[in-house]
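Possible regression after last week's pipeline update?

I re-ran a chain I had predicted before the update to compare outputs. Posting the input and the new output here so someone can diff against the archived version. Not blocking, just want to make sure nothing changed silently.
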Amino acid sequence: MKVFFPFLAAGLLVAKAVAGEAGELTDAEKQGRALVATLMAENSTETYSRTGVMKVRDRERRWTEIPFRLQIVVTPTNRAAAFEITDPVTANSLTNAFKDAQMATPIAGSDFWVGDLAMEFLGWPGQRVLKSEMRRGRSCKVLESVNPEPGRGRYRRVVTWIDNDTGGIVQAEAYDEANKLLKKFEPKDVKKVRGRWEVKEMRLRNVQTGTQTVMEFDLPGE
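New output (post-update):
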């Protein structure tokens, strides 16, 4: 089975052309770029729209629920994506367009940055497969994505475990500019929708602050 992962489709909007001749790359780098290309190709063909709730736990372990809508529109010549939230205080709707927003901007006080939703790290030129190993009971390839401009407030690198059978992300770890673990990302539930497997729930933990954000999608038929 193959799992459709909506943020990979959104990530196409920020992915950059990878520079360098193939002959200049190591085998690990060639494998990394090929793996990223496959992931994006498998998640790039369909228009997608889902609503849901983003549940945010702060440092005092208080929870806030924020309704959202994720929309990805695919045409023969273009792709566009937007993430709309309803502010829990003002009840106003705010929309972030992935191609325009600052990638390190937190969304509505959550642990998700715009760059997390857009899978910005898959557009970085530094991609390599480190190894294969089991993670959460699944056989995975371990992909390391290295930021060419890891300034303050940005990730230095992201390590992602990608399921060999489904092509889905089993887990991802993001490291800060000092190369210390900052966030852990885990899809927690997958359901079949109209013949296609989709992610139902995703969790993101900030291990440095102790905060957490859970995104729950409203899937058809529920």
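Follow-up from reviewer: compared with the archived run. Helices lie at 6-11, 27-42, 114-117. Marking as no regression found.
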